[in-house]
């Protein structure tokens, strides 16, 4: 699988679409560092993850993608200079139809197409589904994503991870800015649940819960440079049944975020 080609096309599509009729856009560089656990050997390694992340809204919906580059201090075949990426494009039913799809606290309903792709493991998943956008007091955004989790991986015979049966996913994402005195903070993140499935050897792949909340301090604002540009904080990664194994990980990570 040509992972770099897939991610490059996704990135170009997202950027070109948002730049054509952009209502808003944000491109960020994230750096996280913490002690990640190999779910197979159970060893811990100091791991740095550098992420390019982009979000944008245009006349008919929104785009979101990220590309992670992970490297640790242990040569064990896991997170050794590896790439992983996700891309989601959502079409707003309210915007494309001209009708109001809001109901109660739901502000909009969207149709989403996405994929997840991993480098060394040669994993590729397709995620078509529905996105609900919510209005909640104090939140800059709150959304719920319901998708299928369709496997199109290369499998063990071609040097990758085992292929899996199809499954489904629920993901909740949020942003909540707040202030303490003159200082500005933000709590962002997501929680996903991916249901159980079975690999090509007939083995169970357990359902997992992955939570990645981030709390940041607006360092740029504090230094009177520019707000919402340079953020410093902590990301907590909690992963129950990491990668479908019996391993549970709970790791705090130093988080630095720069918005272009």
UniProtKB/TrEMBL annotation:
<protein>
    <submittedName>
        <fullName>Outer membrane protein OmpK</fullName>
    </submittedName>
</protein>
<dbReference type="InterPro" id="IPR036777">
    <property type="entry name" value="Channel_Tsx-like_sf"/>
</dbReference>
<keyword id="KW-0732">Signal</keyword>
<feature type="signal peptide">
    <location>
        <begin position="1"/>
        <end position="21"/>
    </location>
</feature>
């Amino acid at each position: 699988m040509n992972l770099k080609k897939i991610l490059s096309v996704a990135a170009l599509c997202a950027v070109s679409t948002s730049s054509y009729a952009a209502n808003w856009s944000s491109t960020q560089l994230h750096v996280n560092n913490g002690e990640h656990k190999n779910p197979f050997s159970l060893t811990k390694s100091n791991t740095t993850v550098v992420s390019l992340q982009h979000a944008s809204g245009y006349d008919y919906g929104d785009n979101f993608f990220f590309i992670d580059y992970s490297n640790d201090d242990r040569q064990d075949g896991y997170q050794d200079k590896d790439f992983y990426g996700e891309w989601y494009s959502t079409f707003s039913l309210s915007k494309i139809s001209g009708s109001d799809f809001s109901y109660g606290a739901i502000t909009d309903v969207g149709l989403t197409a996405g994929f997840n792709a991993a480098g060394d493991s040669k994993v590729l998943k397709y995620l078509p589904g529905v996105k609900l956008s919510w209005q909640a007091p104090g939140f800059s955004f709150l959304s719920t994503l319901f998708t299928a989790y369709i496997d199109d991986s290369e499998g063990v015979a071609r040097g990758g991870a085992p292929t899996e049966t199809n499954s489904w996913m629920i993901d909740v994402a949020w942003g909540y800015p707040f202030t303490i005195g003159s200082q500005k903070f933000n709590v962002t993140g997501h929680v996903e649940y991916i249901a159980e499935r079975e690999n090509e050897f007939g083995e169970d792949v357990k359902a997992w819960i992955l939570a990645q909340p981030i709390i940041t301090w607006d360092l740029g604002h504090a230094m009177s440079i520019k707000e919402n540009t340079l953020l410093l904080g902590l990301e907590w990664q909690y992963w129950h049944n990491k990668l479908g194994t019996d391993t549970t990980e709970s790791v705090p990570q130093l988080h630095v975020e720069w918005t272009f």
